[in-house]
Design goal:
heterodimer, A: alpha+beta, OB fold (Dihydrolipoamide Acetyltransferase, E2P), MetI-like fold, 4-stranded antiparallel beta sheet, two-stranded antiparallel ribbon, 9 helices, 6 strands, B: alpha/beta, 10 strands
C-alpha cells in the first residue's frame, strides 16, 4: 500500500459546476424578480456604430446627372448661371434628388455613412492610455524614490519616506481631488494632466516600496563582488543589482499595475471620460444599467488579464538564468 | 606590493564593540603567497576585506602598490581593479552567463571592446578548465566550477594582487582539489596572493609565509615549514593540534 494516495477528482469538479450553475440560476431569478428586461442588443452600438452624415448642396444650381457606382451615387451639380460643375458622392438609398432637379444652396442631397467609434471603445482607450502613461511615470518615480529611500543621504531618505507615507496614508480619491482642485488650479493644469499626475504619484509610492524591497533582497555578496572588480556604486546598481531586483519584483509589480488599471476608474470623478465615466454616461441615455456595468466590468477584466499574461510571459523569459 | 600599518577594524555590535582587526601590521612583497589561518571569528576574513577597502577600517593604513587607501584623494575603484578578490560563496552574477560574468567588468571598468574582452575571457576560462561552459548560467554549474569562474572573473581585470577569502570552504570535498589546483598554478606563475583558508595542505605546499591570527591580532608570522613543525605561540599550537 503506497503512502501516496490518489484522491478522486471528479465529484469535486462536478460540485464546482453545480455551484457555478446555481449561482447563474439565482442571478437569473433575481433579475426576474425585479422585472428587469435584458437588452444586450443595445450594447454593441456603444463600441462601433454606423454614422450617417447628411451632405448638402454647396451652392444653388441644377442636378445635371446621377451615376450609380456600387452602393454609392455620384451627383453632379451645375451652378446657377454657368461655371464648373461639382460632384457629390452619397449612398444611393439616401439619395434625395433626381437628375434635372433644381436645388437651392444647402439643400440635402444624400447621406454618407461612416463607421464611428462608440463611447465604450473611446472610454476603454482612455483608460488604457491613462493607465499606461501613469504606470510608466509611476515606475520612474518609484525607481528614483526607491533608490532615494536606500540612499545614505538623510535628506533624500527623509524626502522619500515622507512622500511614501503621505501617499500611502491617504485615499486615492482624496489625492485626485487635491491634485485637481488645488495643484491643478495653482499650476493651471489640464484635467487629464492632473488625473495622470495623481495616479502616477499614487502608484509611484507603492512601486518605490516594491523596488526598495527588491534591491534589499539581493545578496550583499553581489554588490561586494561588483565593487571588488572596480565597478562604481552606480555601475553596480545598473549592471548587477537592478537587473536582478527587477526580475525578483516582477510579480508584485504586475499586481501593482493591475491595481492601477482598476484604480484609474477614480479619475472619472474629475470628469475624465474613461471607461467608467463612459459607462455612466451611456446609462443616463439608455437605462440598460445592468448590461452596461457588466460590460464595463468585463472590459476591465479583459485588460487586466491581458496585462497579467504579458507580465507572466516576461517572468518566464527572465527565468532563463534560474 | 601590500603594506599594512597598524590596521584596526572595530565592529559596533550590541553592547560592547569588537576589535575584529586589532593593530595589524604586515607586508606582502611582489610574487609572495601569504596564507592567513586562524580559528573562526579571529578576524582573518575581515583583515582580508580591509585590503581592498571592502571593509571600511577604523584606523591604520593600507598601501597597495604605493597607493594609500586612506588618503582622501585615492579613488578606491581605481585601486580595486588592481586587486582581484575571490569569495567564499563565489558571488557570481546569476543573471549573466559565465562568459558575461567574465567580460562585464572588463567592458564596464577597463573599457575594453567586446571582442577583446571575449577573447581574454575565453583564454582565462580555458586556463581554469571551464571554457565549454562559457554560455551556461552559473546556476547550472557545480560549486567548484563556479569558483573557478569566479577566479577567471577576477583575473580578467589583470590584477596585481589576488585576495582569496576562504575559496574552498563552501565546496563539497571532492571539488576542493580543482580550485586549489588553479590557485597553485597562479602562485607558480608569480601572482601576489593573500589567502584566507582552512586548507593546511595548501598552506604547507604553496605559501611562502603563514600568518596565524586570533582575536584580531597576528600571533605568528613564519614560513610554513617553521610554522607547521614548531609553532611558538601556545594558541597556534592548540589550533594546529585541532586541525591537523
Amino acid at each position: 500500500m503506497p503512502l501516496k494516495r490518489h484522491t478522486v477528482q471528479w465529484p469535486w469538479q462536478a460540485l464546482l459546476v453545480i455551484i457555478l450553475l446555481g449561482m447563474t440560476v439565482s442571478l437569473w431569478i433575481a433579475t426576474k424578480r425585479v422585472h428587469y428586461e435584458w437588452r444586450w442588443e443595445r450594447v454593441p452600438q456603444y463600441f462601433f456604430y454606423l454614422d450617417e452624415e447628411m451632405l448638402s448642396a454647396p451652392f444653388a444650381g441644377t442636378v445635371q446627372k446621377i451615376t450609380p457606382e456600387g452602393t454609392y451615387s455620384r451627383v453632379e451639380i451645375a451652378p446657377e448661371g454657368g461655371g464648373q460643375p461639382t460632384t457629390v458622392t452619397v449612398e444611393t438609398d439616401t439619395l434625395k434628388v433626381k437628375a434635372g432637379d433644381p436645388i437651392a444652396d444647402n439643400d440635402d442631397i444624400g447621406a454618407e455613412r461612416h463607421w464611428k467609434i462608440g463611447p465604450l471603445t473611446q472610454g476603454l482607450w482612455v483608460t488604457i492610455w491613462i493607465s499606461f502613461v501613469s504606470g510608466f511615470v509611476g515606475l520612474v518615480i518609484g525607481l528614483i524614490t526607491g533608490l532615494c529611500r536606500l540612499s545614505p543621504n538623510p535628506t533624500l531618505r527623509g524626502l522619500a519616506v515622507l512622500y511614501i507615507e503621505l501617499i500611502r496614508g491617504t485615499p486615492l480619491l482624496v489625492q485626485i481631488f487635491i491634485f485637481y482642485f488645488f495643484i491643478g488650479t495653482v499650476l493651471n493644469l489640464d484635467r487629464i494632466v492632473a488625473g495622470v499626475g495623481a495616479l502616477a504619484l499614487f502608484v509611484g509610492a507603492y512601486i518605490a516600496e516594491i523596488i526598495r524591497a527588491g534591491i534589499q533582497s539581493i545578496a550583499k555578496g553581489q554588490t561586494e563582488a561588483a565593487r571588488s572588480l572596480g565597478m562604481s556604486s552606480t555601475e553596480t546598481m545598473i549592471y548587477i543589482v537592478l537587473p536582478q531586483a527587477f526580475k525578483r519584483v516582477l510579480p508584485p509589480l504586475a499586481g501593482q499595475f493591475i491595481s492601477l488599471i482598476k484604480d484609474s476608474s477614480l479619475v472619472s470623478v474629475i470628469a475624465i471620460t474613461d471607461l467608467t465615466k463612459s459607462g455612466r454616461e451611456i446609462i443616463t441615455s439608455n437605462f440598460a444599467t445592468f448590461e452596461i456595468w457588466f460590460t464595463v466590468a468585463l472590459l476591465y477584466l479583459v485588460v487586466t488579464s491581458l496585462l497579467s499574461q504579458l507580465l507572466f510571459w516576461l517572468e518566464r523569459r527572465f527565468a532563463r538564468s534560474d | 606590493m601590500i603594506e599594512v600599518k597598524n590596521l584596526v577594524k572595530i565592529f559596533e555590535g550590541r553592547g560592547k564593540p569588537v576589535r575584529a582587526v586589532d593593530d595589524v601590521s604586515t607586508q606582502v612583497s611582489k610574487g609572495e603567497v601569504v596564507v592567513i589561518i586562524g580559528p573562526s571569528g579571529s578576524g582573518k576574513s575581515t583583515f582580508l576585506r580591509c585590503l581592498n577597502g571592502l571593509e571600511e577600517f577604523d584606523d591604520g593604513q593600507v598601501i597597495i602598490d604605493g597607493i594609500d587607501l586612506t588618503e582622501s584623494k585615492t579613488n578606491l575603484n581605481l585601486v580595486r581593479r588592481e586587486v582581484g578578490m575571490v569569495f567564499q560563496h563565489f558571488n557570481l552574477f546569476p543573471h549573466k552567463t559565465v562568459l558575461e560574468n567574465v567580460t562585464l567588468a572588463q567592458r564596464v571598468v577597463r573599457k575594453r571592446k567586446p571582442a577583446e574582452a571575449e577573447t581574454k575571457a575565453m583564454a582565462l576560462l580555458t586556463k581554469v578548465g571551464i571554457a565549454e561552459k562559457a554560455h551556461e548560467y552559473p546556476s547550472r554549474l557545480s560549486g567548484g566550477q563556479q569558483q573557478r569562474v569566479a577566479i577567471a572573473r577576477a583575473l580578467a581585470m589583470d590584477p596585481k594582487v589576488m585576495l582569496f577569502d576562504e575559496p574552498t570552504s563552501a565546496l563539497d570535498p571532492e571539488m576542493v582539489g580543482e580550485v586549489l589546483d588553479v590557485m597553485q598554478q597562479l602562485a607558480r606563475e608569480g601572482m601576489t596572493m593573500a589567502v584566507v583558508t582552512h586548507e593546511m595542505g595548501f598552506a604547507r605546499e604553496v605559501a611562502h609565509r603563514v600568518m596565524f591570527m586570533d582575536a584580531g591580532k597576528v600571533l605568528e608570522d613564519a614560513p610554513p615549514a617553521e610554522f607547521f613543525t614548531a609553532p611558538k605561540e601556545p594558541r597556534a599550537q592548540v589550533f594546529l593540534r585541532q586541525v591537523l
